[in-house]
Fold:
Amino acid sequence: MNETGNFDFYIHLIWLFVIFITLLMLILCYLFLSMRRSVERESKSLVFSHLMIKGIETERRRISRELHDNILPQIRDLEVSNQIRSMCMELIPPDFSKLSLNNALVDLCGKFADRTGIECVYSIGENLSFTAINSENQLHLYRMVQEAFTNIEKHSKASKAALVARQTSSGILICISDDGIGITPAPQASALQTANEEGLGLRGIHQRAAIIGAKLDFISESGNGLMVRIEI
Structure:
């Protein structure tokens, strides 16, 4: 009886072990499939963002050509004419085959200060080089900085702004900051929250950062300004 009882016990133990392993395998399969679906959704989201931003850049160029070729020749008022020229220059991206991103960022700071009256200082490292980054990703970086300045102009109520760009041991760091009202609460990575709390401009920064694989941080306290930190 003891041997029979021990045999039955071991049989039950083996069945419990088999059931446990089966459940474990099912859980692992579920987690794997969930992870794969999540990666696929993220990949599709990035592809969609890339196509959308590419469409926006194409539309920027079209509008700029329309303003420059058809609207500008009909304008006789000098001030309005200069404003349209300025808009055309903002819409058309720099030609990074002729102009370095370093110089384009300096030019961006100057134009921002002239346009808004907000004091803008910049500090760009002497050893900073963007040559390892292709022209498309350089454009993404340029637009991210441009959008950060636009956000300062429209929403920050700042009197000062700053741009810092540095070569680091791990890559390139760009920070755009202001002394304005900041953002409350601090931005989160959720695209929906970003759209609701920050507006489409900063959402575009999130999308471009995801496309080029940059680490993006928004450092903000209410009343103490906002820093946009881009690391690539």
Q: What stands out?
A: The CA atoms of residues 137 and 168 lie 18 Å apart. The chain has two domains: 1-92, 98-231. The first helix runs from residue 2 to 71. The two ends are 72 Å apart (CA to CA).
